[in-house]
Amino acid sequence: MNSSGPGGDDTMIDLVDVHLTLGSEAGEVNILRGVNLTVGAGEAVSVVGPSGSGKTSMLMVIAGLERATSGTVKVAGQALGSLNEDALALFRRDHVGIVFQSFHLVPTMSALENVAVPLELAGRRDAFDRAADGLAAVGLDHRLTHCPGQLSGGEQQRVALARAFSVQPHLLLADEPTGNLDGATGAHVIDLMFELAERNGTTLLLITHDVDLAGRFGRTVHMADGEITETRHQQPTVRAAGA
Q1: Residue 57: which of 203, 171, 227 has the closest Cα?
Q2: Fewer CB within a 10 Å sphere, N or C end of the chain?
Q3: How far apart are CA 221 and CA 64, in angstroms?
């Protein structure tokens, strides 16, 4: 993978004393409680922890989809706290790919159209050609005209991967991307994720409850009660054939 991020910076994610407090009927709830995390450009990090530990909220803050209550959030060399909503949308378009458990494909669009959307938003005149190439990279060049309802769960997640990588993001955020898939299909999707990240020099941050999947990453971050409680470096298990 590439060893540096935009502008030659070796740091892709830098969270410093990040707090997130949200209101509820019962009063304020402290979701994140002083999170500190640094992820280098090109690194692959998994995040584990029980439900409600703050994993997804941290991912949303990193993506600029949720604003930290306090602390510093810097991603791809950009301090997100200084950006308005329009600027955050442009930041995500240019730097961040996101893959969710539930695919989030547009049901009335074909696979090709779903992948082409972020490319069209980025003003790419070759959006559909690049989308077709992206689907071929995940083995779906024979499914270009199929809508999500005509695809299996694994195929839908592969379309979501192709869409996330279509603009060659510096950072890919994945929240339980194999949660709705069987073991073999999920492993294949993760193989593709690593292959695409290696090809594009993309930094990976992935949330999972799967201990075996977490072990495929070079570092695992443990969260509990809105805090990072442990960081474990490890020798990654086999990723993908030929990787």
Answers
A1: 227
A2: C
A3: 20
Q: State pTM to two decimals.
A: 0.89
Q: Which residues contact 38 (CB under 8 A, 6 or more apart)?
A: 11, 13, 14, 15
The secondary structure of residue 190, as a DSSP letter, is H
Task: In whole angstroms, give the CA distance from residue 71 to residue 30.
Answer: 14
Q: What DSSP line would sit under 81-123, residue for residue?
A: GG--HHHHHHHHHHHEEEEETT----TTS-HHHHHHHHHHHTT
CB 158 within 8 A of CB 189: yes
- State the Cα angle at 95 between 140 and 172, rounded to 5°: 55
Tens-place pLDDT, residues 85-134? 999 999 998 999 999 888 889 999 999 999 999 999 888 899 999 999 99
- Helices 153-165 & 183-200, crossing angle to 10 degrees? 10
222 close to 53: Cβ distance less than 8 angstroms? no
CB 147 within 8 A of CB 110: yes
